[in-house]
Amino acid sequence: MIASVALGTRPIPLPEVWDAAIGTAQPHVEQVVAARIPRTLLGVVVGAGLGVSGLLIQAVMRNPLAEPGLLGVTMGASASVVTVAAFSGLSLGLGAIGLAMPGALLAVAAVYLLGGRARSSSAVSWVLAGAVVSAVLGAYVQAMVLSRPEVFDSYRHWVVGSLAGAHFETLFTAAPFITAGLACAWSIAPALNQISLGDDLAHSLGVKVVLVRTIALAAAAVLAATATAAVGPIAFVGLVVPHLARALAGTDYRWLILQTVLLGAVLLLGADVAARVVARPQELMVGVVTAFIGAPFLLLAVRRGRITG
C-alpha cells in the first residue's frame, strides 16, 4: 500500500507522502497522493474479492483451474454494460457498478440453472454451462460493439481492467458488497472443510451440502461481480491467488480465506504499481500485467503437475 501511494509515473519520496498526509506538502504533491489513495484502497478491496471468489469457485466446482470467469461473470458484466451504453447513451464511469452488476449476477444465475442442482451437478456440467453462457454473451457483446462505434469507444477502456481514475465513490459503492461476500465466505469456512472430505462424510456430520454450496456460489458471484463492475475484468487473480494461499496456509478454509484476502490485495496492488512504473511516463492497464503474471504461473504449475484436473 505504501508503494502504491509513493510510486507511479511520478515517484514521490516517502517524506513528501507523509507531508501530504498531514497537509504540509506542496499542492501538486497533495493532489497526486489524494488521487492515489482511493486507487490503492480500491485495489485492496478488489484484489481480496477476486481472490476469495476464485477460492470459493474452486471449492464448489472441485476444479483447481476454476476462476470467476468460468461462471460467466465477466461476460455477463460486459453484456450489461454494452446494453445500457448502447440504448441509453450513458458513458462508463462511477455508474459502472450499477451497470455491470445486474448482468454479472444474471449470468451466474443462468450458469447455476444450466449446470443443474448442486447435489447432482459435476464439475464438467458447471464448466460446460459457463462456457455456453460466456460464448452466447460474448457473441452478443461483439455484435453490439462492432455495430455501434460509440459503444466501442466507451467500452474499450473498461473491458481491459484498470484501477486508474478510481474515486472514493466507487470504493464506497463496492466495499459493502465485498464485505458482505467475505463475511459470508468466512461463515461457511468450517462447512467447506467438512465438504472437502467428501459429500457422504459431510452429510453424516450434519452439513447441508447443497445449502453450503449454494451460499458459496452466491458469495463468489457477488464478490466477482462487484470487483468486475468496479474496475473491469481482471484475469488470473481469482485463479492464481488460491493456489498461492494453499501453498502457505494448507487446506483449512478458515486460514485459506484470510491468506487469500491478503495475497489478493498484494498481487493486485503489486501489478498496479508495476503497470505504472514499467512504461513511464505512460501507464499500462493492470489487467494486462496480471495476465502476464498469471499465464506463466499457470503454465509452470501445470507442467510441474501441481495443478491437476
From TrEMBL:
Q: How does it sit in the membrane?
A: Multi-pass membrane protein
Signal peptide boundaries = none
The compartments listed are: Cell membrane
Give the transmembrane ranges: 37-57, 69-88, 94-114, 126-146, 215-241, 253-278, 284-302
> Which keywords label this protein?
Cell membrane, Membrane, Transmembrane, Transmembrane helix, Transport
Read off the Pfam families from this record: FecCD
The record's InterPro entries line, in alphabetical order, gives:
ABC_BtuC-like (IPR037294), ABC_transptr_permease_BtuC (IPR000522)
The protein's predominant localisation is membrane
Similarity field: Belongs to the binding-protein-dependent transport system permease family. FecCD subfamily.
> Would you tell me the protein name for this molecule?
Iron chelate uptake ABC transporter family permease subunit
Species in which this protein is naturally found: Nesterenkonia rhizosphaerae
